[in-house]
Design a protein that fits this description.
Elements (H helix, E strand, L loop, with lengths): L2 H7 L2 H28 L4 H26 L5 E2 L2 H10 L5 H20 L2 H6 L4 H21 L5 H17 L4 H15 L24 H29 L6 H15 L8 E2 L2 H7 L11 H16 L1 H10 L2 H11 L1 H12 L5 H13 L2 E2 L2 E2 H20 L1
Antiparallel strand pairs: 1-2, 3-4
């Protein structure tokens, strides 16, 4: 490794990108996870242990896969799947819940090793993958700028810092926005550090229990939602950014990790979408082949977040939610621009791309499955119809 490569790997921009990805990932759904674990009947110590195992599982898989393939591969819990669990785990014992997690991850593992999922993903044109990604990211951008209504000073200051730094040192624009946000919230008295539980909480083994009722009523929906609304967008985002997705291996490795860690609390490990997109932005590094370093840093921060679970809660309790929302929107701006450009670059595929984009951006949920899946499905159908018409 040359000195220049070494410096870039340990540059503040790479580290900050990894940190922002983890911050966005945790901030966007940690409250939903806590709800799901509460419904499952976990006490404070067990919740801390499960969060530790989730962080360790995502950290190890993110670092391992990113280093192995030399591309930014992030793993994450299935946020849509966890949202489903909030309404489905009532009356299910912890042992049955673990059985459900193993069952759902086992089905995903089979989809990976048999290559079924990879064959399905091959039918997705890159323009549609980009359109779906743009539809997902649009909501983050609208939320960030919508904060001008509720937190004008904070939002305006962070946007100004981002724009000015983008003009001078583009790689450090997000760093400037984060520092500005912390400074403004600190001066306004909106940072509140409160001790929340133990810093360390060791996971405990839970013996899985498999019942037909829980597997059918919870396990199958959890599998479908996680596969369609988390893993499919994650693979599509890799395709949209020009990375070979290695679909079968990524799905197999992430689901196998979830199977092994489920009895200790690592109940959901999937291919990341939004957080991965942060590490794929052109501002991370001009060379796409070097951007995997940001993902490795994200994996390191995942590990730290898992080990120091109590400290993570203190951090997220201290930051106002609007700060994280603005930071996420700004971090994804360049990725949104590139996705829109790529989705509309092919004139023949614009009809399918714009339908995919708008349906994904609508945020609808049908049959418990998020708009990202339906947008992609509609885009593929329209793409095929237009191809027949032209033929």
């Amino acid at each position: 490794m040359s000195k220049l490569t070494f410096f870039r790997a340990f540059s503040p921009a790479m580290m900050m990108t990894g940190l922002v990805a983890v911050l966005v990932g945790y901030a966007s759904s940690v409250a939903i996870i806590l709800q799901a674990l509460d419904v499952a009947g976990l006490d404070t110590a067990q919740t801390g242990g499960w969060l530790m195992m989730l962080g360790i599982g995502m950290g190890v898989t993110t670092i391992g896969l990113s280093l192995w393939y030399k591309m930014p591969v992030l793993t994450a819990w299935s946020t849509p799947g966890i949202a489903l669990l909030v309404t489905s785990l009532s009356g299910v014992t912890i042992n049955e819940a673990v059985g459900v997690f193993i069952f759902a991850s086992g089905l995903m593992f089979l989809c990976g090793v048999t290559g079924i999922f990879a064959r399905l993903m091959n039918y997705i044109p890159r323009a549609l993958a980009s359109a779906m990604l743009a539809g997902i990211l649009l909501r983050f951008g609208l939320t960030a700028f919508g904060a001008l209504n509720t937190s004008f000073v904070l939002c305006a200051a962070m946007i100004a810092a981002y724009v000015v730094m983008r003009r001078i040192f583009p790689l450090y624009a997000i760093i400037a926005a984060l520092i500005t946000g912390i400074t403004v919230t600190g001066l306004s008295g909106d940072l509140h550090f409160v001790r929340a539980g133990n810093v360390f909480a060791l996971p405990e083994f839970v013996m899985p229990s498999f019942t037909l009722t829980s597997l059918i009523s919870v396990g199958i929906p959890f599998f479908i939602v996680s596969l369609a609304s988390q893993n499919a967008p994650g693979i599509a985002i890799l395709q949209a950014n020009g990375y070979p997705p290695h679909t079968s291996v990524l799905l197999s490795c992430s689901s196998l990790a979830a199977i092994l860690l489920a009895p200790w609390g690592g109940f959901s490990i999937c291919i990341a979408a939004i957080t991965a997109a942060i590490c794929m932005a052109p501002d991370v590094h001009p060379d796409p082949a070097r951007r995997y370093t940001a993902a490795v840093w994200a994996g390191i921060f995942y590990l730290l977040a898992g080990i120091f679970g109590g400290a993570v809660f203190m951090l997220f309790n201290a930051f106002p939610a609007v700060l994280i929302q603005i930071l996420a929107g700004l971090a994804l701006l360049t990725t949104l621009m590139n996705s829109l450009h790529q989705s509309l670059a092919d004139e023949k595929g614009r009809d399918a791309a714009i339908i995919c984009f708008l349906l994904t951006a609508s945020g609808i949920t049908l049959l418990g499955i998020s708009s990202a899946f339906w947008g992609l499905l509609a885009g593929i159908v329209v793409h095929q119809i237009m191809a027949i018409r032209r033929g």
